[in-house]
Amino acid sequence: MNHWRTYHAQWEKLGPPLRPSAEVVAGIRSLVGSADGRVFLLGVTPELAGMFPELLAMDKNPAMIANLWPGDTGSKKAIAGDWLEIRQPAGSFAAIVGDGSLNNIAHTADIARLLGLVLGLLRPGGRFACRLFERPARPFTVQHLMKVAWSPAPINFHAFKWQLAMLIGAEEGASVPVARILERFEQLFPDRDGLSERTGWPRQAIDTIDIYRGSPVVYSFPNRAEFLGCIPAAAGGVEFHPCGGYDLAACCPILTFVKRPD
Ligand SMILES: C[S@@+](CC[C@H](N)C(=O)[O-])C[C@H]1O[C@@H](n2cnc3c(N)ncnc32)[C@H](O)[C@@H]1O
User: What fold, for 4-134+222-259?
Assistant: First the structure.
């Protein structure tokens, strides 16, 4: 089963890097500036939903909307649908924002397709800002993961899980099935109690990885060059902003670009 159907139940247990920290929310808010007008949110990330007075949020998973969306108001609305099939008038958004949204697309060709749609939906001068999970230029290695997991851990379990996903991305390509993350984790760390004792990660946090069992979902963990290859040539002001000091923040820049005036 697609793990997003039950993911909302885990949401409260998650923190950065999986959820955006206050610095990230403020960073995205300041990058899009006054964003006077309608903002499109890729997903229903509640921390971002609260930032903009006029908002359309879209998520293909109705359970995420039912459980995480704070509720429609006169000027904010969430709809179920696929970002790649979005039907909204061209140039109708002052900004388009997201948190980890591009990593939820399985293939870089579809990230490129989505960013092309994003550029079309932005009005001239409108800005895109989305936090990325970006595979580092120097890949994480098994030795690195073993070192992290062999003593009191310097990072939380979710940051560690993303390092493992990025290692798989470096070895097998940017598209990473979530079931593969679980499979590799179980091969490398069969003794969860021992892992918990050594690192200090609560068993409950470690066991959140089980949500990937049997899930057909594929994430992508592109590196900088691969992300750059997805950005439409017509986009202006392309920047990758480092943001925050939370675990794995160095791999989580905010990508931004602007729709050039016609
Ligand atoms: C916004 S992203 C990332 C949220 C959070 N930062 C994290 O990493 O857990 C997660 C959401 O994207 C949604 N999603 C993934 N691909 C989608 C697509 N093609 N169209 C619409 N929603 C999609 C999923 O259903 C999920 O609720």
Answer: Rossmann fold (3.40.50)
